[in-house]
């Protein structure tokens, strides 16, 4: 295992990196010109989200599993399952609503601009997250102390 892989797995910021990259791929697909390009970008983003949700559902946090196995406390796992199910249902409802409305009405300039701003925000948030994953902040702090 390379040191960069280990760093991505151990840091909290490393857990957010795939979510942002998949969201970025789906937002970027809107700007591509050809149908095959759009399909590839959307499939990559949707597949990444699906695999991340699958990973969340198959690998619960260690402390919640320890509470369940040692004390029989299922509360944390139940709450996590409810939130995960609600998030998947909300995402599916949103995708269905978009799929039903956009082909009939098209994308208005307001929503197009809003998606441009959202994409810019996602791309800008990748920079500090990348710096945190690469441990640049701790290196800068250690220079002054």
TrEMBL record:
Signal peptide: none annotated. Keywords: Membrane, Transmembrane, Transmembrane helix. Residues 23-143 form the EccD-like transmembrane domain. The keyword Chloroplast does not apply. The chain crosses the membrane at residues 38-62, 82-102, 114-134. The keyword Membrane applies. This is Integral membrane protein.
């Amino acid at each position: 295992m390379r040191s960069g892989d280990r760093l991505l797995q151990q840091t909290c910021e490393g857990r957010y990196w795939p979510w942002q990259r998949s969201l970025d791929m789906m937002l970027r697909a809107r700007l591509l010109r050809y149908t095959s390009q759009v399909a590839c970008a959307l499939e990559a983003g949707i597949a990444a989200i699906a695999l991340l949700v699958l990973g969340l559902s198959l690998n619960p946090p260690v402390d919640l599993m320890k509470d369940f196995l040692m004390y029989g406390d299922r509360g944390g796992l139940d709450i996590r399952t409810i939130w995960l199910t609600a998030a998947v249902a909300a995402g599916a409802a949103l995708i269905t609503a978009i799929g039903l409305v956009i082909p009939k009405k098209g994308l208005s300039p307001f929503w197009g601009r809003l998606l441009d701003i959202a994409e810019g925000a996602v791309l800008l948030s990748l920079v500090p997250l990348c710096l945190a994953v690469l441990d640049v902040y701790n290196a800068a702090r250690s220079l002054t102390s």
